[in-house]
Every structure is written in C-alpha cells, then in structure tokens.
Amino acid sequence: MEAERRSSDATVPELLGLALFSDYTLRTVALGSAALGITSGALGTFAVLRRQSLLGDAISHAALPGVALAFLLTGSKAPLALVVGAALAGFVGTLVVMGVTRTTRIKYDSALGIVLSVFFGFGLVLLTFIQRRPDATQAGLDRFLFGQAAALLRRDLITQAVLGAVALALMLLVWKELKLLSFDPDFGQSLGFPMRALDVLLTSLLVTAIVIGLQTVGVVLMAAMVIAPAAAARQWTDRLGLVALVAGLFGAGAGVIGAVVSAEAERLPTGPTIVLCASAIVLVSLLFAPRRGLLWREARGRRDRRRLRLAAVLEDLWTLEQQHVDGAHAHSAAVLAVMSGGAERSLAELEQQGLVRQVGDEWALTDRGRAEAAGRATS
Amino acid sequence: MTSGQIEIQLIAVVVAVACALPGTFLVLRRLALVSDAISHSILLGIVLGFFVTGDVTSPLLLVGAAIVGLFTVVLVSTIERTGLVREDAAIGLVFPALFSIGVILISRYADGVHLDIDAVLLGELAFAPFDRLVFWGWDFGPVSLVVMSVILALNVAAIAVFWKELKLSTFDPALAVALGFTPALVQYGLMSLVSLTAVGAFDAVGSILVVALMIAPPATAYLLTDSLPRLLALAAAIGAASGIAGYWLAYVLDASIAGSMASMTGVFFVLGWLLAPGRGLVAAARRRARQRLEFAQTMLAIHLANHEGRPEAEVESRVEHLHGHLRWDASFAERIVRGAERRGLVVERIGSLELTDAGRTLAAEAVSR
User: Fold this and answer.
1) Element (H, E) at A212
2) What percent of chain B has pLDDT over 70?
3) How confident is the model over A294-298, as a mean pLDDT?
4) β-strands B346-349, A331-332: how paired?
5) CA atoms within 13 A on the CB side of B101
6) Rounded to an integer, what distance in angstroms lies between the CA atom of residue A145 and that of residue A64?
C-alpha cells in the first residue's frame, strides 16, 4: 500500500493538509473514518444518555460471528455482505440482552458481559475454523479484530458513507421521538408514541453506526467510538441537539486524525490510534470544558471559598464595631483569628480592596467596608 | 488422550474454576463489566512490566499487570466520582484507552518478541503444555497450570477467610457499614482477586475468555439456585464443564480453544435459561399454560353453578353452549371440559354438564374470594 511505505516524518497538520487531498488511499481512509466518526458520535449520544454505553461494546463484539458467518455463507468479502452479517449478529446480540434481562433475574451488566464474550468467542471459533480451511480466500477477515484503515477500499467507503447517511437521516427524521424516548419514555407512552418500536429503531441505528466502524476500528475497540465522543461533547453543552452535533464532530475529528496518522506512520494500528485520539478529546473536555470541566470547577470552588473567608472577617469586624460606643474602633488580628480562621491573610486581602485599614497593630473598617458589611448584615 | 491433551484440559478446568469464584461476586454485585475492563487493561500492565524487566516470563509481569488492573478500577471510580460521566460510560472510556496504549506499545516496540497481540487477546491454550516449569531437574508441569493453581488456591482461601465480609457487603452493604465493616476495603480486595485471576488466566486463554468464564457460569448458576455456597459450587462446576466441552469442540472443529470454551459457557447459559427448574423459560411457559387451564375450569364451574337448578340450566349446561357464552372455541371448550371431568369437577350426562360436589365447592370458593 502506497500510504504505508511512507515515513512518519511529516507532522499531523502537514499530513492532513497536503496528503489528504493528493493521496487517493489517504483520502479514502480519511473519508471513511469521518463517516464512521460522525455516525457513531451522534448516535452514541443516545447510548450514553440512556446509560447504555456498554451496549455498544456488546454489539461490536457480537458482530464478529456475523462477519464470519456472512463470509462462510456467501463466500465473498463484499463489504455489504459482511456489514449485513455483522449488523444481524449485533442485533441478535441486543435482543438476547433484552430477553435475558426481561425473563430472568440476571442484571443488565451480566447480560452484556455474557453476550459480548460468548458471541466473540463463537466468532473466534468461526474465524479459526475458516482460517484452517485449505483455500486461502479468507485473508483479511482478522482485520475486523483491530481494524485496518489502510486496507479500506473505495467500495468499503461507499458502503460506510451510504449506511452512515441513512442512519443519520433516520435519526433526524424521528429526532423528537428519540428525545422523548431518552428523557421520559413513560410520558411518551402516555402520549401514544410507540416507545417499544422507537427503542428497537434506535438500537438498530446504533448497530448500524457500529458496523460501519468495524473494518476501520475493529470489534475490540469500537465501543470507545460510541462512548468517547458523546461523553466529551456532553461536557460542553446541555442541549441534546448540540451534544449530538459536537459528538459527531469530535468523532469525525478523532477518526480522521487517527486514521491518517496510522496510515502514515509505521506499525501504528488504526483502531487503537483512533481510540487514543478520542480519549485525548475526552480528557481535554473533562478538564477544560466551561462550567462543567474539572479545572473550571476547581477555580470556581476556590473563588467561592475566598469570598466566604473575606466576608466572614469583614462581618466580624463590623459586629465588634457595633459593640463599641466610639464608631471606628480597631481590633487586633488575634481577636479576629479567634472568631474566624485565616484572619491575617484575609485582612491583607481586604486591605488591598480598600475595605479595612490598619491602625497601628490593629484593624478597623474603612467607610466603604462599613457600608459593605452593614449591607450584608441587614440583607 | 495424550498427556498434552490431559494437561490442556486440566489447565482449562483450573482456569475456569479460578475465574468462576470471584466472578460470582461480580455478578451478584452488578460489577460484571469490571471484568471486561480489567481483562483488557492488564495488557498495558504486561507491556510495561516487559519494558521494565525485559523478560516476558518474569513473574513481575503478573504483578505489574495486576496493579494496572486495580488501577483501572480506581480510575473508573475516580472519573465516576467527578459526576461528569456515569459509571457505564466511565468503564467504556477507561479500558479502551489503556488497551489502546498497550496495543500501540506492543506493535511499535515489542513486535516479534513473543508479545503477540493476537495471542494475548485470544490466548493459545494449545501451546501451554510446552512451557514447562522445571526446577532442579524436576518437571512441575506446565507453567500456566502451576500459576493458575496457585491463584485458584488463593481465591479459595480469600473467599473462605473473608466469607462473612463478602457475603454481607454483597447482599446488604448498608448493614455492613452499620456493623463496622468497610465495604470499600472488601470491594478493593475483591477487585485485587479479580485482577490477579484475570492476569493469570489472560496468559493462558486471552482476555475475552476471561470475561466469559467470570460472568457466564456464575450467571447460569444464578438461574439455578438461591444459596451462595451452592452458587459458587455450581458456577465452578459449570465453568469446568465448559472448559472440557470447549476443548473437545475445538478439537473436533480444529478451531480456537479459548473461543470454543467461551461458546460452551454460552451453550450452558442458554440451557439454564430454557430449562432451569422453576425459573427457566420452559418451566414458566408450562406454569402459564397450567394456570390458564385451571382458570378456565374454575370459570366453567362458576358458570354451571350460576345456572344450576334454574329453568335455563338445560340450555346453559350443554357443551356446545360454552362456545357462545364463555367465548371459547369448540376445541378449547372440549379440552377444558375433559380436564374438569378428570379433576372430578363435572360429569357429563348426554351432552349436558352437571357439577359434582367438588365442583360446587370450587365455584363457591372462587366466587366468595
């Protein structure tokens, strides 16, 4: 493959800027990864919202025997046949999860664990069974394990793009109903919407999003492409529509950057590279997203604590002043420290703000400080 | 059977039992997918351990991997505690990232030095007997058999020693706190066991099978019993049976042993799901069918009792009439009447039904209830 032979000297922007538009393989890889990223990101939003994040993991693992069976039955590696096989198996997997949780006392997490490991195990049996057959036509099926973007062909890309577009169009068509399903299914039921059918539809869309990515990212890691973009996007906005949009963009970004870097560099498997890009986006979002982000939250906590600390000292000073006949009475820092901790530091900061002044060794309110404290005390 | 085959099956059984024991508690505590997370992320631990020791057979690799496994759990709960993402998403964020780092490190820096991604992910039990533990000229058996036996013994010992702590914190964490136990400590102890077991099993059977062996046999056993000791014993037995059956399935198909074992855990699960006494799908269906018949027979008795001794009784108590009155089709009515006859509720005289004393009592009881 042309792309694999080149060295990894170029920087990421260079790759994206130059190579993307000149190199045919690279363009295929990037477009395919963008399609998978947008679809899985947008539909993953619902999975994460409905606490079904790991359903994606079960579906993608469950798809493996479908790929192998499709190959065994049709004898072809046509992308559509394999994708349909994967989708059917993934769908059967979710039906089993639903059936087990509905008819037994086994909980959702165990049902997911059983489906993902047993289906995957069965898929392995089929794969090894196929591999040991005399004819060598099976080569390449094992790239479904970890994905291999560099091996994407034009026909794969077309399959991915068309399926992704159909899934996204359906999602937009029943957007309002899906929103209802995610936030208040009981209310939706009472309004007469077919919630059960919508649940099945949404699951089918998720299955579609996942099988699109199997060839690029692989069954083992595809779950991350459902969860990570949505979890990252959730930090930036509270609106469902925006979360889905941003998740789609994050997914596409991670997909394109990861796939291109992996295709250019040597020995950098595609699936893990894309997943690490998505994980980096999540990390940045968890830390820096406005309002929800951890750093943001830490800064706000600090600001609040400081304000409370200063207000306490100011009010103490005012209370002490009220107990004395002569107005502007000064008090020692030690007295204030007894009333509220950390008084020395607070006094220095208050002095900077012009709310208190130092009288010899002691502290008194300024006029502005008195007004401020009185305002607080009476409010 | 050759000695190699016997050894492979022995390893399979020991691995399966060692996984089933901590797995039972995972299933009961709704932490099943933690096994998925741990079994993937320990790959990173093995790679890092390899970088430090430069030796793929070093026992330090196991320790390093177990620590990374535990670290995964800590990381998941740290992310979850921020309140920014929920638990399921936190699991799904952590292990793919750690696993990806592991895979990339292997393929860039450790490719070809016996750390093969396929082997670690999928395991290759078939080669396990070739890697033998030899000390002072004595052959102690395959390394993975020795390692897993030690881990199994450790699991049994830990569960026996902390039996009441595990039991209490699993079924009633609030009471456990009230009585002065520390559920968090029990939790991390359990996670250490899971992590260690996963690492040991990972080497022999690969990460996905670890999940299958930890979850499916305990879940199957959970369909069959309510007592914790029996649950553990059954889970271990089902795991062991899956191991042996899986080996022979693989032998017949010439396919992956680990995959076949995972498939067999699934087969046992489906059997339990369908056939479990009392709770299985078949038992439930039969119970529903029986209830439907009993209900219909009671209806028949009430119907007859209603019209007994009245002028219309002649018409109402004819079998053909049931079709119109109770909206039963002819064959269903026939079945119900025959059933009621067998139970001694009614007798038929020339096409007309008459209640027996037992039937009258049943009708009176049903109506007065």
Assistant:
1) helix A195-217
2) 94
3) 89
4) unpaired
5) 15
6) 8
ipTM confidence score: 0.87
Q: What is the mean pLDDT of chain A?
A: 84
Q: How many helices (H) and strands (E) in chain B? A: 17, 4
Closest Cα in chain A, distance from residue B220 (Å):
9
Q: What are the tokens at B234?
A: 């059954």
Q: Assess contact for B203 and B43: CB atoms under 8 A.
A: no
Give the E-state strand segments of B113-245 in sequence order.
132-135, 138-142
Sort out which chain B residues have CB atoms less than 8 A from A107's CB and list them.
Answer: 27, 30, 32
**What is the per-residue pLDDT for B23?**
95
Task: Give me the CATH topology for the region B3-277.
Answer: ABC transporter involved in vitamin B12 uptake, BtuC (1.10.3470)
Strands B132-135 and A362-365: unpaired
Q: Taking a C-beta distance cutoff of 8 angstroms, is the pair A157, A31 a contact?
A: yes
d(CA A224, CA A255): 11
Measured distance CA(B321)–CA(A269) in Å, rounded = 75
Q: Select the CATH number that applies to the domain covering B282-368 from these four: 2.40.50.90, 3.40.1190.20, 1.20.1440.230, 1.10.10.10.
A: 1.10.10.10
- The pLDDT score that the predictor gives to residue A13 is 57
Nearest CB to B30; choose among A52, A107, A122? A107
Mean pLDDT (whole number) for B225-250: 94
**B85 φ/ψ angles, rounded to the nearest 5 degrees:** -135, 155
How many Å lie between the alpha carbon of B159 and the closest alpha carbon of chain A? 21
Q: Which two tokens stand for residue B359?
A: 């039937």
Q: What is the phi/psi pair of residue A355, to 5°?
A: -100, -25
Cβ-Cβ contacts under 8 Å for A338 (sequence gap 6 or more): none
Indicate the residue of A110, A220, A234 with minimum beta-carbon distance to B32: A110
Once rounded to an integer, what is the mean pLDDT over residues A81-97?
92
Give residue limits of the domains in chain A.
Answer: 8-291, 295-378
User: Is residue B166 within 8 Å of residue B25, measured between CB atoms?
Assistant: yes
Q: Which two tokens stand for residue B8?
A: 């492979």
Tell me which CATH code domain A8-291 carries: 1.10.3470.10
| Residues of chain B positioned with their CB less than 8 A from the CB of A121 | 208-209, 212, 258-263, 265-266
Higher pLDDT, A94 or A13: A94
pLDDT at B16 over 60: yes
| pLDDT reported for residue A2 | 40
At the topology level, CATH places domain A295-378 in Arc Repressor Mutant, subunit A (1.10.10)
The pLDDT-based confidence of A5 (bands split at 50, 70, 90) is: very low
Q: Is the pLDDT of residue A82 over 50?
A: yes
- What gap in Å lies between CA A203 and CA A238, rounded to an integer? 23
> Does the CA dihedral B241-B246-B248-B252 come out positive or negative?
positive
